[in-house]
Amino acid sequence: MSLGSSASPLSSNGHHGGPPQLRAVSPEIRVTRHGTPPPGSSLGSGIQRRPSLSFEDGNIAVLAEKSYFLVHRGFLSRQSEYLGELIRDICSCPTTTLEGRPVLHLPDSSDDISLLLHSMYDGLSSLMSLESNLRIASILLRLSARYAIEHLFNETLAVLHKPWPTSLAHWTRRERQLPRVNTKSAQEISLPHPITIVNLAREVDAPELIPAAFYDLCRLLPSLVAAGYTDPFNSTYYRLTTSDLVLLLQGREAASRFFSTFIVNELENRRASDTCFNRRQQDPAKRRLCTGAFQLITFELLQDVNGLITGRTADPLLAMQDVLNLQADPGTPEARNMFRACDACRQELTMSVHAARNKFWDSLPEWFGVEVTNWG
């Protein structure tokens, strides 16, 4: 399988146009009318039929690398107008046949085309139970954009929206379900690397995937992001473009400034609520319990300088949620939770944290320089 962000090696010959666009798909991903090999060329030796996706009543051979699939013209044409036009072109004057069927020659890997045909015949859900379902969705998103298969494009995009969502609620749910990206091996959490998602989103014009993927990258050390990533499955090397790397670093700096401001305004200088229970206590020490709790939380967050210990300052959304988590344990009379304020102060702090997290999330597209229509 190929999950690379590189463009197809084919270039326009000036004879045929590109496929109908699902969106403003970048020129690199569009495939020109490849069809059959040029007249006089040979298919070469070693070509084999893929029995798992070949039908005896198939009336066209789809050739990819050294494998071919016997499938149905009408079915492919119904799924994609662009494929239908390719098929009509080669069937009007076939120059090459396999098992007596005209050949539709596609430039993708045979494994990728196998996935594409499986998803078209059996539905996307038939592949989503596999352990590598998100990698498969990434491949199919690229191919469905390339061949203008609109329903498959939308279905696979919805699959990728789950780990890289547009809403904070879905991001929070994702974080509860998945282990956190660590600073050494993002691929260990069974997701495609965020760099590959950014590159893929650029290729197929799906900008709504980019802010969450960029934020994922913010939680890695900048040096690791700049160095790029080598996929252990196929040894393909990926890196962000220079412009995207600059956007990432600018967004990371904006996120860091937001978090610093949050600490100063909402924790370090926070006053107790007007209805604070502890401020009415006779004991002066008890009157300072809530403000003391805010200061302890501040110190707890600031201990993680640059996110190298727990990753909090490299992950402001997690850090702001941790403010509430530190206060969640009610403690016992023998062992009071020093981070816990009274009910009134805790309720006001909860509202402040939720408002800050929402504002932070809403700001991600602007910080990363990405225009997203429906965000938040």
| H/E element sequence | EEEHHEEHHHHHHHEEHHHHH
N-to-C span: 33 Å
Measured as a percent range, the helix fraction is: 40-55%
Q: Which of globular, elongated, flat, extended, rod-shaped describes the shape?
A: elongated
Computed over alpha carbons, the radius of gyration is 27 Å
**SS element count, helices:** 14
Mean pLDDT value? 83
Class inferred from helices and paired strands: alpha/beta
The percentage of residues in β strands lies in: 5-15%
- Total strands: the figure is 7
With strands numbered from the N-terminus, the spatial order across the biggest sheet is 1-3-2-5-4
**Uncertain segments of ≥5 residues (pLDDT<50)?**
1-21, 24-33, 36-41, 181-188
Explain what this protein looks like in three dimensions.
With 376 residues, this protein is α/β, with parallel strands linked by helices. The chain contains 14 helices and seven strands. A five-stranded mixed beta sheet has the order 1-3-2-5-4. Strands 6-7 form a two-stranded antiparallel sheet. Helix 7 packs antiparallel against helix 8. The longest helix is centred in the last third of the chain and has 27 residues. It is elongated.
Brief synopsis:
This protein is α/β, with parallel strands linked by helices and 376 residues long. Helices cover 47% and strands 6% of the residues. The chain has a domain at 259-367.
Walk me through the topology.
Layout: E1 48-49, E2 60-64, E3 67-71, H1 73-79, H2 81-92, E4 97-98, E5 101-106, H3 110-122, H4 133-146, H5 150-161, H6 168-177, H7 194-204, H8 210-218, H9 222-227, E6 229-230, E7 237-238, H10 242-268, H11 284-287, H12 289-302, H13 316-328, H14 343-367
Biased composition (Low complexity): 1-12
Domain BTB: 58-129
InterPro entries: BTB/POZ_dom, SKP1/BTB/POZ_sf
